[in-house]
Amino acid sequence: MRNIPGVMARVIKVLNENNVEILQTGDSNITISLLIDQKDLNNAVKTLHDHFGLGRMRRTYEES
């Protein structure tokens, strides 16, 4: 997130679009914190994973 503007705005937008109520937020150069209701937890995690491609394996080497 460092030096990437608009990450928090994207997080809020995609969660709002997926009916996740955000109760409180906080962020810094390297972290984002969200307070959400327990009932929205699974939806929030899935939404963020899908939107930001979290959990995908990344190739860390070049094939010859």
Characterize the structure shown.
This protein has helices spanning 7-17, 41-52; strands at residues 22-27, 32-36. Strand 1 (22-27) and strand 2 (32-36) form a beta hairpin. A two-stranded antiparallel ribbon has the order 1-2. With 64 residues, it is an alpha+beta fold. The chain contains 2 helices and 2 strands, in the order H-E-E-H. It has a single domain, classed as 2-Layer Sandwich (Alpha-Beta Plaits), CATH 3.30.70.
Main CATH class: Alpha Beta
User: What fraction of residues sit in β-strands?
Assistant: 15-25%
Main sheet record:
2 strands, antiparallel
As a whole number of angstroms, the C-alpha radius of gyration is 14 Å
For the biggest β-sheet, the strand order reads 1-2
Secondary structure class reads alpha+beta
Total domain units: 1
Q: How many individual helices?
A: 2
The overall strand count is 2
Uncertain runs are none
Task: Output mean pLDDT.
Answer: 88
Shape: globular
Fill in the keyword field for this structure.
Alpha-Beta Plaits, single chain, two-stranded antiparallel sheet, 64 residues, alpha+beta, 36% helix
